[in-house]
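PROTEIN DESIGN WORKSHEET
SECTION A - STRUCTURE
LENGTH: 403
C-ALPHA CELLS:
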C-alpha cells in the first residue's frame, strides 16, 4: 500500500512544461499542452480521464460503505476534456482581457494561492463594490451538480455566465467578449488548436465556456493526508487528528451527515440558521427553488482545502475554522432573527462540543489540505496583459498592459 501511495505522490510532481511561447518577446508560436494535468490519464481518443484510488471503491468493494465511510465512492466526475482544451481554459481563467475593462479575471477572486478563493469576506470585482457573498473554492468542482451558494446553476458553463456578465464582477457582454477574443490573433490560433474540428474560424461562446469548464474540472484535490489514511496508511494522521475525525463522524457532532466524505459535502442545500453580518437576510435557495422551507438554505460547502479559504460561510463572517465550528454548538437557531421562522435542518442540534473537541475538529479539517495538483499560473497571457506578480492575481491594481 505504501508503495502505491509513494508512486501516486511521485506522479504529482510532474511540472507542466508545455504551453510556453517559443518567442516570448513576440508572443508567437504558443503551443497548447498535449499531455494531461497530473492525476489524469490520456486516452487513445485524446481525452483526459481522472485516475484516483477512490475509483477502486466504485464497485461497492469498499469495506466501509455508508455515510462517513472512509472508502465511499466518489460521485460521477466531469472529465474527458482534451489536454488542449484544459490548457486553453487555463489561459482564459487567468486573463483579465475577459472583463469589461481588462482588469479582472476569474483568478482575481479564485486565486490558486488562496485555495481558489480570495481571502476576502465577500468578493470585489470590476465595480469595486463588495459583492453579497464570499467566493467559494474551486477545488473539486468537477464533482458538483449545482453551483453557487444557493445552488442556482446546474453546470459550470451556466455558472460562469454569472460573473462574466455581471456589472459588479467582470462587467463584459457576450458581444464584447467575442469581439475582444476574435481580435487577438493568438487566441484565434489557440482556439483552433483546442477545437480542431471547428466549423468557423471565429471563436464562439460555447468554446470559451467549454475551455474554462475543462480547466476548472482539472482542479482535483484528493491526495490529502486524510486520503492517505482513508486508503489504509494509518500513520498519515496523528492521534489528535484521528480523534478529530471520530468526533466529525460521531452521531453527536453529525458533521459527516452533511459534509460527507469523500468530497466532504453531500451536495444538498441546508438551513443551518446563520445570521447575516448586517441586519439584512439572505433568503438563499428559497428563491431559486420557489420553496419557502428553504429560506436561509445554502449549499453545503466541501471542506477540502478549507484550511486555505478563510474567512468562512457564504458571507465570510467567520475568520477562523474554530469560529465557524463553534457556531454549531451554541444552540439550534441561536442566531435566527426574531422576525424569521426558519426550517432548520434536523441534523443541526446542540452537540455541546467542548473547546477541546472544537480544536480537534479544526485539526482534522486541516488534514484535508492538498494542493499537489495546483496548476501553474501562465507566465505570459495571450492577450499581452502581463501579470506583474505571478503569485498575486489580485489584478485590479496589479496589471499593466504591455501592448
Ligand atoms: C468578482 C469576483 C469573482 C470573479 C471575477 C469570478 N468569481 Fe466565481 N464566484 C465568486 C463568488 C462571490 C461566488 C459565489 C456567488 C454566489 O454563490 O452567489 C462565485 C462562485 C463561483 C463558482 C461556484 C462554486 C460552487 O461551489 O458553487 C464557480 C464554479 C466559479 N465562481 C467560477 C468562476 C469562473 C470560471 C470565473 C471567471 C469566468 C469566476 N468565477 C469569476 C466571485 C467571483
Ligand atoms: C445540516 C447540515 C450540516 C451539518 C450537520 C454541518 N454542516 Fe457545516 N455547513 C453546512 C452548510 C449549509 C454550510 C454553509 C453555511 C452558510 O454559509 O450559510 C456549512 C459551512 C461549514 C463550514 C464553512 C466552510 C466554508 O468554506 O465556508 C465549516 C468549516 C463547517 N461547516 C464545518 C462543520 C462541522 C465541523 C460540523 C459538525 C460540527 C458541521 N459543519 C455540520 C451544513 C452542515
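SECTION B - SEQUENCE
RESIDUE ASSIGNMENT:
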Amino acid at each position: 500500500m505504501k508503495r502505491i501511495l509513494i508512486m501516486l505522490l511521485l506522479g504529482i510532481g510532474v511540472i507542466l512544461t508545455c504551453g510556453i511561447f517559443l518567442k516570448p518577446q513576440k508572443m508567437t508560436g504558443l503551443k497548447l499542452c498535449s499531455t494531461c494535468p497530473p492525476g489524469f490519464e490520456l486516452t487513445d481518443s485524446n481525452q483526459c480521464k481522472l485516475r484516483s484510488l477512490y475509483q477502486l471503491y466504485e464497485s461497492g468493494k469498499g469495506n466501509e460503505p455508508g455515510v462517513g465511510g472512509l472508502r465511499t465512492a466518489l460521485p460521477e466526475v466531469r472529465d474527458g476534456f482534451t489536454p488542449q482544451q484544459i490548457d486553453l481554459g487555463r489561459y482564459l481563467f487567468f486573463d483579465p482581457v475577459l472583463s469589461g475593462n481588462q482588469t479582472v479575471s476569474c483568478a482575481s477572486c479564485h486565486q490558486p494561492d488562496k485555495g481558489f478563493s480570495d481571502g476576502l469576506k465577500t468578493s470585489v470585482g470590476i465595480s469595486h463594490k463588495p459583492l453579497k457573498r464570499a467566493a467559494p473554492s474551486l477545488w473539486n468542482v468537477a464533482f458538483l451538480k449545482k453551483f453557487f451558494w444557493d445552488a442556482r446553476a446546474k453546470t459550470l458553463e451556466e455558472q460562469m455566465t454569472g460573473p462574466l456578465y455581471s456589472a459588479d464582477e467582470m462587467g463584459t457582454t457576450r458581444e464584447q467578449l467575442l469581439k475582444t477574443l476574435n481580435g487577438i490573433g493568438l487566441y484565434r490560433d489557440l482556439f483552433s488548436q483546442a477545437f480542431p474540428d471547428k466549423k468557423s474560424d471565429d471563436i464562439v461562446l460555447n468554446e470559451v465556456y467549454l475551455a474554462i469548464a475543462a480547466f476548472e474540472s482539472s482542479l482535483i484535490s484528493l491526495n490529502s493526508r486524510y486520503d492517505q489514511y482513508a486508503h489504509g496508511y494509518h500513520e498519515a494522521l496523528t492521534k489528535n487528528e484521528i480523534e478529530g475525525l471520530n468526533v466529525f463522524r460521531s452521531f453527536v457532532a453529525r458533521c459527516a451527515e452533511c459534509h460527507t466524505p469523500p468530497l466532504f459535502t453531500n451536495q444538498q442545500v441546508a438551513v443551518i440558521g446563520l445570521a447575516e453580518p448586517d441586519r439584512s437576510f439572505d433568503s438563499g435557495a428559497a428563491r431559486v427553488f420557489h420553496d419557502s422551507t428553504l429560506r436561509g438554505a445554502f449549499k453545503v460547502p466541501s471542506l477540502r482545502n478549507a484550511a486555505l479559504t478563510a474567512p468562512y460561510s457564504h458571507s465570510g463572517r467567520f475568520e477562523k475554522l474554530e469560529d465557524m465550528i463553534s457556531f454549531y454548538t451554541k444552540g439550534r437557531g441561536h442566531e435566527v432573527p426574531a422576525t424569521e421562522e426558519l426550517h432548520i435542518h434536523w441534523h443541526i442540534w446542540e452537540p455541546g462540543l467542548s473547546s477541546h473537541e472544537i480544536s480537534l475538529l479544526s485539526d482534522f479539517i486541516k488534514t484535508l489540505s492538498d494542493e499537489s495538483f495546483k496548476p501553474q499560473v501562465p507566465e505570459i497571457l495571450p492577450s499581452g496583459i502581463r501579470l506583474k506578480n505571478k503569485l498575486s492575481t489580485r489584478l485590479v491594481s496589479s496589471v499593466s498592459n504591455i501592448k
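SECTION C - NOTES
The radius of gyration is 22 Å.
The pocket of heme C (ligand 1) is lined by residues 104, 106, 108-110, 123, 125, 131, 133-136, 138, 141, 144, 147-149, 156, 159-160, 163-164, 169-170, 212, 216 (CB under 6 Å).
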